[in-house]
Design goal:
binds ligand LLP; single chain; alpha/beta; 8-stranded parallel barrel
Length: about 425
C-alpha cells in the first residue's frame, strides 16, 4: 500500500495534491511520500522481529539525503557501494556502526574513508580486495569486521541485467571456494571475520531463489563454524520485488520473506542483516510529468511528455514498465485511447510505454509515472543537457524540495574551457 491515491477527483501524495507540486516546482519532478517510506521500512522490521536484526537500506536505490535521514532516524542501517554513498549516509547522520560497505570494486581510498569514519562491516567480494583491505588496516593500525560475499550459483529468475547470484555474474566468491577464502581471511591481520553475505539479484517476485540461496548460506555457516570461524552475522542482501502493475498479481510480502529467512537460517542464532532498496522506496515515489504535445502519427498517437529517458532510465534500459496515470481521476467508464508515451530526447529508446490506455489528454495535462521511487532519480542524467530532475518529499499536508532543479547557469558552470582554447 502506498499513499498516492485519488481524492476528490485528483491524485494526492498523502494530503498534498500532486498538481500543486507540479505547479510550484515545475515538471518533471520526483515526489516521495514519507508515510509510505516509513510504512515499508516498518514492514521489514516486523518481518524480522523474531530475531536480532538490522535493516540496511540500499542507498543505491535512492540516495537523496532527506530520504536517507528519514530512514536513518527510523533506525535503519545503510548498505553503501561507493565512497559517495558512504559520504551521503554519514551526511544524513547515520552512524558508521550502522553502515555496511558492499560492492565489487572498492578502492583503497574508499576503504580508508570508511575505516576513518567508522564502519559496521565490509562485505568482501574477492581475494585481491580482501588482501588490499588487510594491508590497509595494518597500515592504519585498525581491525575491521568483515563478511565474505558468496555467490551461491542460484538463478534469481529476474531480468538478466539485475541478476547477481549465478556463477557467470561478477559478484561474490564462488561458494565452492568459500572455505579456502575464509581460511585465508582468518589468517590475515586487520580483518575480523564475523559473517557471511549473499545477494542474488533485484526485483525477485518468487521466494524460491531466496530459499535456495539461504539454505546454501546456512550450510556454509555450519561448515565455517565447524572450522572454528565465529560467524555471528548473516547479511542476506536485498532484492524483494514490488508490484509494478496494479492489475498484476503481487510479489510476496516482506512478512513472507521474513518467514523464509526464519525457516532457512533462523536456527543459527545469527544477527540478520538485510539490504532492501526497491521494496522500501519504489512505490514510495512517482515521477510527475506534463504533456508537451499530442502528436498524431500515421497509425498511433504520441503523448510527448516533458520527462525523458534521462530522468527515468528504467524503461529504456531494462524494458521496464511503470504505470502511467493522469493526475485528474478519469470518470468511471470514461473512454480510453492508446498512446505511445514518449519523452523529448532524440532517441527512439526514449519511449516509456507503447499503447498505454489513457483517457484523452491534451497539451498541459499532467501524468504520474508510478513505482518510480527506486532507481529513478539516482539513475538520472543530464543527457540532451536537460537539467537534473528535482526531487520533493511530502509529509502529511506539507512538502519540501529536497533537490532543486539546477538552472542552466549552474549546469554550465560545472564545465570549464581551458585557457589555451
Ligand atoms: N544489496 C546489494 C549488494 C545490491 O547489489 C542491491 C541492488 C541491493 C542490495 C538492493 O536490491 P533491491 O532490494 O533494491 O532489489 N537499477 C536496477 C536495479 C539494480 C539493483 C542493483 N543491486 C533497476 O532499476 O531495476
Amino acid at each position: 500500500m502506498d499513499h498516492f491515491l485519488y481524492r476528490n477527483g485528483e491524485l494526492f501524495a498523502e494530503d498534498v495534491p500532486l498538481s500543486c507540486i507540479a505547479q510550484q516546482v515545475g515538471t518533471p519532478v520526483y515526489v516521495y511520500s514519507a508515510a509510505t517510506l516509513t510504512r515499508h521500512f516498518g514492514l521489514f522490521r516486523q518481518a524480522l522481529d523474531w530475531t536480532d536484526h538490522l535493516v540496511c537500506f540500499a542507498v543505491k536505490s535512492n540516495s537523496n539525503l532527506a530520504v536517507l535521514k528519514l530512514m536513518g532516524d527510523l533506525g535503519a542501517g545503510m548498505d553503501v557501494v561507493s565512497g559517495g554513498e558512504y559520504a551521503r549516509a554519514k551526511a544524513a547522520g547515520v552512524p558508521g556502526d550502522r553502515i555496511v560497505f558492499s560492492g565489487v570494486g572498492k578502492t583503497v581510498p574508499e576503504m580508508r574513508m570508511a575505516i576513518e569514519g567508522g564502519i559496521r562491516q565490509f562485505n568482501i567480494e574477492s581475494e585481491p580486495e580482501m588482501r588490499a583491505l588487510s594491508a590497509l588496516c595494518v597500515s592504519m593500525g585498525a581491525t575491521v569486521p568483515v563478511a565474505i560475499r558468496v555467490n551461491p550459483d542460484v538463478d534469481a529468475k529476474t531480468h538478466e541485467k539485475i541478476a547477481t547470484g549465478k556463477s557467470d555474474n561478477k559478484f561474490g566468491i564462488p561458494i565452492s571456494r568459500a572455505m579456502a577464502v575464509y581460511a585465508e581471511a582468518a589468517s590475515l591481520p586487520g580483518l575480523r571475520v564475523v559473517g557471511v553475505d549473499v545477494h542474488i539479484g533485484s526485483q525477485l517476485t518468487d521466494l524460491a531463489p531466496f530459499r535456495a540461496a539461504y539454505l546454501k548460506v546456512a550450510e556454509l555457516t555450519r561448515a565455517l563454524r565447524a572450522e572454528g570461524h565465529d560467524i555471528t552475522r548473516l547479511d542476506l542482501g536485498g532484492g524483494l520485488g514490488i508490484p509494478y502493475r496494479r492489475d498484476n498479481s503481487a510479489p510476496p510480502l516482506p512478512i513472507e520473506y521474513g518467514q523464509v529467512i526464519r525457516e532457512t537460517v533462523g536456527d543459527l542464532g545469527c544477527e540478520i542483516e538485510i539490504e532492501p532498496g526497491r521494496n522500501i522506496v519504489g512505490n514510495a515515489g512517482v515521477l510527475l510529468s506534463r504533456v508537451i504535445y499530442v502528436k498524431n502519427g500515421e497509425d498511433r498517437d504520441f503523448l510527448i511528455v516533458d520527462a525523458a529517458m534521462n530522468d527515468l532510465l528504467r524503461p529504456a534500459m531494462y524494458g521496464s514498465h511503470h504505470d502511467i496515470v493522469p493526475l485528474i481521476e478519469p470518470a468511471v467508464g470514461a473512454p480510453v485511447r492508446p498512446y505511445d508515451v514518449v519523452g523529448p530526447v532524440c532517441e527512439s529508446g526514449d519511449t516509456f510505454q507503447k499503447g498505454a490506455d489513457l483517457p484523452e489528454l491534451a497539451a498541459g495535462g499532467l501524468v504520474a509515472f508510478r513505482s518510480a521511487g527506486a532507481y529513478g532519480a539516482v539513475m538520472a542524467s543530464e543527457y540532451n543537457s536537460r537539467p537534473l530532475v528535482p526531487e520533493v518529499l511530502v509529509q502529511g499536508d506539507h512538502f519540501a524540495v529536497i533537490r532543486a532543479r539546477p538552472t542552466f547557469e549552474e549546469m554550465l558552470a560545472r564545465d570549464s574551457i581551458p585557457a589555451w582554447l
